[in-house]
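User: what does the whole thing look like in 3D?
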Amino acid sequence: MPFGNTHNNFKLNYKVEEEYPDLSKHNNHMAKVLTKEIYGKLRDKQTPSGYTVDDVIQTGVDNPGHPFIMTVGCVAGDEESYEVFKDLLDPVICDRHGGYKPTDKHKTDLNFENLKGGDDLDPNYVLSSRVRTGRSIKGFTLPPHNSRGERRLIEKLSVEALTSLDGEFKGKYYPLKSMTDAEQEQLIADHFLFDKPVSPLLTCAGMARDWPDARGIWHNDNKTFLVWVNEEDHLRVISMQKGGNMREVFRRFCVGLGKIEEIFKKHNHGFMWNEHLGYILTCPSNLGTGLRGGVHVKLPKLSTHPKFEEILTRLRLQKRGTGGVDTASVGGVFDISNADRLGSSEVEQVQLVVDGVKLMVEMEKKLEKGEAIDSMIPSQK
Amino acid sequence: MQCSLHELHNVLTELGLSAEEEYPDLSQHNNHMAKVLTLDMYRRLRDRATPSGFTIDGVIQTGVDNPGHPFIMTVGCVAGDEETYEVFKELLDPVISDRHGGYKPTDKHKTDLNSNNLKGGDDLDPNYVLSSRVRTGRSIRGFCLPPHCSRGERRAVETLSIEALASLTGDLKGKYYALKNMTDAEQQQLIDDHFLFDKPVSPLLLASGMARDWPDARGIWHNDNKTFLVWVNEEDHLRVISMQKGGNMKEVFNRFCTGLTKIETLFKERGHAFMWNEHLGYVLTCPSNLGTGLRAGVHVKLPNMSKNAKFEEILKRLRLQKRGTGGVDTAAVGGVFDISNADRLGFSEVELVQMVVDGIKLLIEMEKRLEKGQSIDDLMPAQK
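Assistant: Here's the predicted 3D structure for the full assembly of 765 residues, as structure tokens:
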């Protein structure tokens, strides 16, 4: 429920220009789109749960951005935000997702059998494979806006759903607030633990309120399927393993997600989804599939080749350091993943990763032998 | 247009969420709010809102997000507007009582900003007292407080403040520096003068929403002499500081009272008084600053005194507190301490500054004794 700050009954007594934020030093998607006119149109509106445009934009006002990195600068507080504030969010979505139009339809395909290949990425180069996405539970507001009671109910439903899984998905839930030191050490060693967000992008949006209440980590006994509860989204679902068998990672991802969704539906709390935006998540950048499928891959030669960036762009892939977003690569090892989220399906995005990484490993091998790769440069996908 | 609290609770009720399910987990917490807020109290208060829409969750968020420290007792709650102290008195009265030495809901607070009533204070030994300073806060009636104000309100507070301060004359004549368009040179000068304030980093402040829209409508004003300084829209609408090198606390307090009174008159002329009532005195964002909101202190060299076993006890009896010279939560360097009044509410400004003046005088006497290897037992004060 509204956490107080922007729910100020007096602000409508002030003129639009008096309330309109100063975005003159800002470089984020929200700042590029939000004119005084749009702000004026939206400022007296709210979603049924009371979320306002000031809530949507607070993170973007507080974080002017970076000349090189274009952040989104706005978040949703509930499913209806994307409808009530479409005058702001449609253009933001269009800018962020390669021209996606308000009339476009998004295709969901979580049938892993539709993936071609992907089980044979060379493990001499591909160190690990991972697919993650987020899910929001219908009927609850999102992390920037939800109350303690809502968050706890989401946790309760999630724990129920996850602890009923069996076979390869049998696992255990670790609530952040009552973890033992030993459990915490183990989760850190496994690289599973998430902590209270420190990024002002997240804290300014109100997602860290009441930490660590109702936050936790679930993973299966095999440590190949992991769910974060109540971090930046209601659920973050991660499938991973060492080596290059992305096909197996994606299979487990799809099967696990399907099972979890079934259980939530039984309780009349399906996942937030619609045919225009696909899966609804807190940050507009994660709409559609919310999927990031990637590998840690050794590309010391290719990464220093002048055409590396161009190749990635054409393959619709992006690189990160092995610490995740906004980190640097170490020892020529890169995190390579799909760049798109909205407008293509899960299968399509993972296919791009599988095919693209295969090609780049071939290029790396050529460069090792001192051969040219010019004939292998791909066309724009 | 704003949907009502009633409607919002309906949404929660549809989900089957009651007060129990919303009540925060305060089991790991050590702050004034956590000590006071029971489930029943929360149940009663969650249906209330101030006229501007501030709710109990807004009041307590900072205390929920910051469990506290075993040794330092933080307040754990803030006001979003003047009415918060009335609408949520069931929580805030006990917090105020705990924080302010048993202050009762029926007690009256005395305001005295007549610096002529201060006895002495112009002769603290400058060999020991390096600098003297008095600060307080003020809230402008008719606007919400920093945790809750909108951009429009904050800008209106800034505009009024600039107008009022620009009309000061004589030794109070000065200039305003808006944080958002300061030049590099101006910024460097303000840093060198130790005047610049920056975006809060303390999670105590951030969690209450005071840093929203930074640096919009925030700024620093100071007089040409650099002895009178006003912060606009930091933790309170206004923070007013009078300071100078050496031990002439009387002059510092004199300037403080004169300047404050002039500013108050200017605001009143523009139809905006300071928030004040006869029970809580000056109303500020943090309950710890109610009453006078006043912290009067000196930077004083007490290397021998500070190592004396009775130092803490003496400070307590004198109703003083010590800090390092970096301010709250810093350590002392080179035997130099920041010594100031411990109280804010239930004593007048003159009374609090008198305690500092008299207490420092005594502490220096004790320091001199200890330098000569003499005893200080006969100088031990009674509890003030």
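In plain terms: The longest strand of chain B covers residues 129-138. The two ends of chain B are 54 Å apart (CA to CA).
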